[in-house]
Design goal:
Blueprint: H1 2-8, H2 13-22, H3 26-39, H4 60-69
Helix pairs in contact: 2-3, 3-4
Length: 82
Amino acid sequence: MSELIAKYQTDDAFQIAEVYAFRHEPDKAFEWLDRAYVQRDTGLAATKAAHLLKNLHGDQRYTAFLKKFGCALNTIVTVPRM
């Protein structure tokens, strides 16, 4: 993980957050989501559709982050299956 962070921390904070969320490390995931927000990471556009973030959906911080980011909570996002 430290290698991933060293290589991608300045441009891909959202992807690092996804990895932490997938690994069931929500505190680190939210830390990196906040970094992504500050960096204006383009990955944030996929926040509601990101399957790797689904472990965060039950956390109050996820709802707060969506509000901070400006995502409508009732917006339905569909992701095409490949």
